[in-house]
């Protein structure tokens, strides 16, 4: 409603010829982008649905030839996939909440110009992106903190991403200091300023942080590998990697009908994509409407 | 380049492991089949009655169950079961049975096989809270010994290794490979020496194409060349296109380099011993230049896979299934696989094993067929293992007792195998004709063919698993027998090195191998002129090849010493 | 306004300990807020940083990081003396630079054009589809690349053949490797990377657009004179950050994509370390190489930051 695009729609009647040409080109480019991004997915999908002979004879280019769901079912037949799903949901939700809270709590003071030492602390934080001690000290740390083989090992070691912290800090710095100063002249303490002024304005940054962190958790795999050996605690990605590797291994070993194995390896490949992408696809439109509020922030700015 | 070929070989129906590096098996005469030995194994225990009862000795079996009160749990670090939906942590039948027999419980600490090495290396480097029994990364097991992470087990072996000692006696080639340079025994390892007898590497060709053009079975490299040329130029698959792949290979130097006596096969990987007993590197021998000249001709005339440098299993199977491939190299059992692939793709064709390995020319000997192993993968007891004696007994039992060996190779009696009329185990149709998965996966789903040391040896009941391979198929049996006279033990690459040797080896060899792999591709593809061959060899020496040769020489000398 | 405030802040920075204590006390609420974050960075980032010592010692698990024998620069020299050192550094930097050169502008351009679309289902679809590839694992991505580029029947070569060309063995040609790496990387990430720019665009002041439109500016003019300057600070910060990872070309994708045939252009530092370390856990060596990379990255990011501060008045610090 408040987006500038709607106000632009208002002005559409005045669009010049050249503008319309540009708009058409834009649409064409976007259609091209759509094709380039979608084609590989369509190709793999068609390959995985087609009957085996057509795949082998390379007859599939766009749409499936024949129909075959047999080994597709296999991928979803195992009940442990739901345990893995549950774990990933847990890590994504709890992890993202922890991330967003920690990130904002760190970023906000660093955005306040009156905060003594903020430059020094910011530099200290940025520095950690450049140097790390490597896997062994991290592993020892996780063990010593008692996080090994607990759900927290999936959440705490990546509580704050420096990039996202900078993002949040930049956002908070965009909130006019004058707003806060006038509030504090009116006798409001820091707590009141934070709660009454900053938090209500923070939806866009929280939306962006949520998306970035949630996607990170959704795709994360390495921490589970090193820190969470218990299968009951492992996330979906771990489960899918196992599936993928097993299918490829069996194919390489040739244990069973090679054709069958090749099909299964391919279908597993495809199924993993679907399983991973679908849920996260649902998050985005939900967050998208908060991105649009970036405009409203802009409006308040002056 | 070798990625694909290695993978094919690696996971033969017998080798339940992911990295099959190699070495020659010591004692056994490779050309004798192990079948005659089955009777002697049952008599081994007869000569052990004089043991002094006050000091424990491995001449007497320990009581079963080893522990009666269920107080002992052994933790084992290993990759997880390779069948989808099955995990060792779920208590697979073979292991449940072993747990019942011994009274010892297992705490499996498993990781997906693809990532096992990076996980266990981190844990070992951190050095805390290790599992009792660990699948150690293969590269440098002695490093972990020197770090004090893996403990010696010579004493336990002498005192409690009742079954393992019998197995070592029946298969004397094995012990040197689990003994460190200091003479102490540190490791357990899977034995794959037997697999090469019934399932060796071979060269296979489309029989129907040979008949179509009235060609004889190729023997010399010239014969092979003529076959390939005919396949390609006379449109062997008859589709009017020049799309045949006469020789499908991921690495021609490894597939055919042995015809020039270069030991460049996957098992020796270039390491060879000359007539003076000196270790040489096949990839730096002058004969290689001549071979590469030939290989370059094969490549540039389109007679071999044009994408050999980056092949994957998907493409290989696709091309085989499309009926494009005239010949290739693989393990014998793959002949059946590939024929099935042709059949299910409705292609009227058949692969057969060529009865003699290729030879350089009419006057040369046929190429050797390498025997790798005998060991594959390495397991050791960690410093964090308490009650080592009891746990050693458990591993001893699981490694070499007949009950355990049958479990590992055949799964569960009455389900996946039964004892046949000749007293030997045979797979049931549950294992062989399972609609859900292949035979190996069936056994693995029961807990067999595990990521745990087990034996497919040359002699005794430890070799029974081997006997089953290809038994059903007379053609494959014949093909394997044809290769017997040419089976030759590969360089003992898997003799344990000292830590210094490993360090030297690692420091120089990674650069050398990079150079070798790269230059082989460049020479074969003709990107680099063979006039540069001498520069290439000089380059290897300037990268420290002589230092690596010293390491290999020391390793080989120790091997000879151990055989005495 | 912002400038004057930060000038005051800077003046305040030069403080006596007594005054510092005063500020801390005054802003105790802010300090309370930042404490968990600070604790996080100290515990999870700075404590393990002692691990870099391993680069200078012959690390032994039994002796620990503090007790292992000091070997100074041995592992660094090992690395520098490798026959391939210069090639590895060159390949690493070139892959990074090409990824930056081609990959960096794409999400920005995409975001700018996407912003031109009217709100509606088409825009939503394009946007959502564009970041689908981000969720494909590297293994699957490389599998797709291999099947599309297969010299026998990959679709790219089928097209080349049908146009009368000779098929190209893409994955065996050193000259193609960087292109394949960079293009597949752009395909996988441009949509997802554009999110940050899209949200930056939506924070541009709408009044600026109104004003431009009143002045009769055309679409493209608005894009170049309003939108782009509006998101420029974001662009610059993103660019500076990218320079902090020039030496860190990831191992996984290259390892799956390369072969000895393409080592010439494809072998990078991380794959080399992997091949060397695979023999045994050579943690000291790989830590040394990581440390070397970090130092180069640090130098690069500082330099770029400085240049940016002078040229554009936007900088990371």
TrEMBL record, chain B:
Keywords: Cell membrane, Lipoprotein, Membrane, Palmitate, Signal
Top-rank lineage group of the source organism: Bacteria
Matching PROSITE patterns: PROKAR_LIPOPROTEIN
Record has Transcription regulation as a keyword: no
Biased composition (Low complexity): 30-50
Pfam families referenced in this protein's UniProt entry, alphabetically: SBP_bac_1 (PF01547)
Chain spans, region Disordered: 27-63
InterPro entries cross-referenced by the UniProt entry: Bact_solute-bd_prot1, SBP
Keyword Cell membrane on entry: yes
Signal peptide: 1-27
Gene3D superfamilies referenced in this protein's UniProt entry, alphabetically: Periplasmic binding protein-like II
PANTHER family from the UniProt entry: ARABINOSE-BINDING PROTEIN-RELATED (PTHR43649), POLYGALACTURONAN_RHAMNOGALACTURONAN-BINDING PROTEIN YTCQ (PTHR43649:SF33)
Protein name per Swiss-Prot or TrEMBL: Extracellular solute-binding protein
Lineage summary: Bacteria, Bacillati, Bacillota, Clostridia, Eubacteriales
UniProtKB/TrEMBL annotation, chain C:
Residue ranges crossing the lipid bilayer per the database entry: 29-56, 93-117, 129-149, 222-241
A Pfam family hit: BPD_transp_1
InterPro entries according to UniProt: MetI-like, MetI-like_sf, UgpAE/MalFG_permease
Membrane topology summary: Multi-pass membrane protein
Similarity annotation: Belongs to the binding-protein-dependent transport system permease family.
Compartments it resides in: Cell membrane
Annotated keywords: Cell membrane, Membrane, Transmembrane, Transmembrane helix, Transport
Species, as recorded: Bianquea renquensis
Domain ABC transmembrane type-1 stretches: 89-304
Broad class of the protein's primary localization: membrane
A biological process from GO: transmembrane transport
Gene3D superfamilies the UniProt entry points to: MetI-like
Annotated GO CC locations: plasma membrane
Entry protein name: Sugar ABC transporter permease
